[in-house]
Structure formats: structure tokens, C-alpha cells
Amino acid sequence: MTLDVTGLSLRDLTSCGGCAAKADASLLKLLRSAAYDQQGIETLVGLAAPDDAAVTAMNETTSLITTVDFFPPVVSDAFEYGYVSALNSLSDIYAMGGLAKTALLVCGFPREIADSEISACVAGAALACKEAGVEILGGHTVRIAEPIFGLAATGYVHPNEIWRKTGMADGDLLMLSKPLGVGVLLSTREQSDEEIALEQMKVSNLSARNSLVQLGSAVHAVTDVTGFGLIGHLSEMLGTSFLNAQVNLPSQAVLPQAQSLFDSGKRTSADARNRDALDREVLGLTQSHSQAALFDPQTNGGLLASINPAFEIQLVEQGFITVGKVVTGSGKIEVLSN
Fold first, then answer.
1. pTM greater than 0.70 (yes/no)
2. 31, 140: one domain
3. Helix 78-95 and helix 206-213: axis angle, to 10°?
4. Active-site pick, 16, 19, 107, 129
5. Which of 149, 290, 308, 334 makes an SS bond possible with 246, Cβ 3.0 to 4.6 Å?
6. How far is Cα 136 from Cα 116, in angstroms, rounded to an integer?
7. Catalytic residue check, 19
């Protein structure tokens, strides 16, 4: 028998969708430790420290970026699920400063789902890849209890132009390429909220990557904001540096419909997890509605960049939002009131 997915949404088949389904940071740290031995001479970015993708040296002008990302259904429509999943996977390559070139499909679906729905999911991914100039070369498909879908992608970057997650400098501004709030919108399971979230998730980070590339060495650190929320990924950017990150979200940094949900007390299931996962001191943290977006899990969220402040206006004109700054300190995050 096959499921009538016109009456039963793909999202009804999973307990947690999108990047909110990510394993928590403590488990990832344990797994990274279990897998890591020593970094090879050709490995430029590996398991030695958290980052968005792996980078391997090829020659003096080219390095290979590899990454894999997949998650359970984040929206109801199979085609849109595939489209967003592909964009989210490619985002890790953009966060390293590279351009994506090829991809393999990672497919897992219950037997009860109609083949036409699986095909629609792949078609969505194919369109997203085509628009990004990425060729799908193959993949692997299995039957499992809950659906998952994503890509194992490869890309290229000049070895001297790799963006790392760490590397922020005193005086930098923190710039975000997309507003927050996708997670809480999806958590309502309301069609109108899902459509607003989908509009944001379908925005590729390729254009944001291209805007940052224009700044050259003025870009000091980059990551993409996904399941750990802005504050969780910012914590990774601080690393072990003697710096503090001061965060102050302006109103345009949060989708208005999402802020209304936060103001009503709505939170995602990942909110408490993301708060508990913080392993550094956070000053000024409260349970206020104005801070809720900091912990909201994003799917294909924006790029978060630490840049020379001289280029703030240029990035604002290209859609980026200033959400904080970097100052001398001791590895703390300071949440400032609006």
C-alpha cells in the first residue's frame, strides 16, 4: 500500500524536521573525537576543529571542498522539500568561500511513500542544483522508517581564500544575510506560516557568498546559521579566542510573523536544547521574547560573517543585517538589549 500524501503531509511522517533534527553539539564533539586521529598533510580543514565542510589541497590554486547534509521533511510538498534540502547542503560549501560543482543524492524513504513523491523530491533537488551550476552525478537510496533527504556535495576554493568558522578580529562587525525565525514558523504546522518560512528557505546563500567574496581579506570568519540557532553557531565562531561577541538583534533581523509567535510565548522544541548546549559564558541572557530568535533553529539559514567594519554599508545595501560586533574579551557572548 502507498500513503495518500495529498491527505497526509510528509511532515506528518517525522517527529522533527529540517535542521532542528540535528544531533546536539555535545554528541557531535564526541563523534568528532572518536573519528579524529591526526590531520593529513593535504588536509586543510578537517576534524581538528568544528567547521562547515572539509577542505583538501589539490594544487597551488585549487582546493577540494566536501560536505554532506540531510534531514527529515521540513515542508509538506515533496518538490519543495528536495529543493530546500539541496540548497541547505550547498550552503556549507558557500560558507567556506567556495563554489559547488557536483553532488550525490542521499535518499531514505519509507516503503509506504509513493514513488511519484520520491521522484518529486529528487526533481526539486535537481532544479536547485541546476540553478547553482551543480551537476548531480548519482547517489544512494534506502528504505527507512522516517524520510530523510539531502546531498553529499563537492566544490572548489583557492587555498588562500578559504573562509574558516574561526578567525574573528577585534573591531569586526557581525553581519547576517537572512532574517531569523524559520524554526518557530514551521513549528506551528500552519500552512500560512510554512509558506513564509519556505520563502526564506528557498533563498540560496550563493548570492550572499558572492557579496562576501567581493570584500577579499576583509572577511575574517564565516559560518551558516542552521539547527543550533544564531547564538550556537556564533559560539563556535568564537572558538578559543580572547574575544567577546556582542549581539544586538535589530527588528529586521527577525521575520515579523516569527516575532509575533515569540511574543505569544511560542518556542520550538530545539529552543531548550540550544540553550542547554552553550558551553561558554553568556552575559545578559534572559527568557525574554526579544531574545528568543537567538535560539531558533534555522534550515538553510543565512551566512553569518565577521568582517572589517569599513564594509558594513556595502553589505547592508546587498541585504545583510548587522547583528553585533567583536571586542577584546575572554570568549564570552554578550547579549545586548535592543
1. yes
2. yes
3. 20
4. 19
5. 334
6. 19
7. yes
Three-state secondary structure call for residue 68:
strand
Query: ∠ at Cα 78 (73, 83), nearest 5°?
Result: 85
Please provide the DSSP assignment of 216-243 as one string. GGGEEEEEE--TTHHHHHHHHHHTT-SE
The per-residue pLDDT string of the chain (338 residues; one tens digit each, 9 = 90 and over) reads 344 444 446 766 666 655 566 667 778 778 888 888 878 889 899 888 888 999 999 999 999 999 999 999 999 899 999 999 999 999 999 999 999 999 999 999 998 889 999 999 999 999 999 999 999 999 999 999 899 999 999 999 999 999 999 999 999 999 999 999 999 999 999 999 999 999 999 999 999 999 999 999 999 999 999 999 999 999 999 988 899 999 999 999 999 999 999 999 999 989 999 999 888 999 999 888 989 999 999 999 999 999 999 999 999 999 999 999 999 999 999 999 76
What does R_g of the chain's alpha carbons equal in angstroms?
A: 19
Asked whether residue 324 is assigned to any structural domain, the reply reads yes
The identity of residue 49, as a single letter, is A
DSSP per-residue codes, 173-220: EEEESS-B-HHHHHHT--HHHHHHHHHHHTS-SHHHHHHHHTTGGGEE
Question: Is residue 4 a part of any domain in this protein?
Answer: no
Q: Which of 18, 8, 141, 2 is nearest to 75 (CA)?
A: 18
Rounded Cα–Cα distance for residues 117 and 79 (Å)? 8
Residue 104 lies in a domain: yes
> 222 and 74 share a domain?
no
Instruction: Count how many domains the chain has.
Output: 2
Calculated CA dihedral for residues 108, 110, 111, 113, nearest 10 degrees: -100
Phi/psi zone of residue 115: left (φ > 0), alpha (ψ -120 to 50 degrees), beta?
alpha
The CA-based angle 220-226-232, given to 5 degrees, is: 70
CA 209 to CA 225: how far, in whole Å?
14
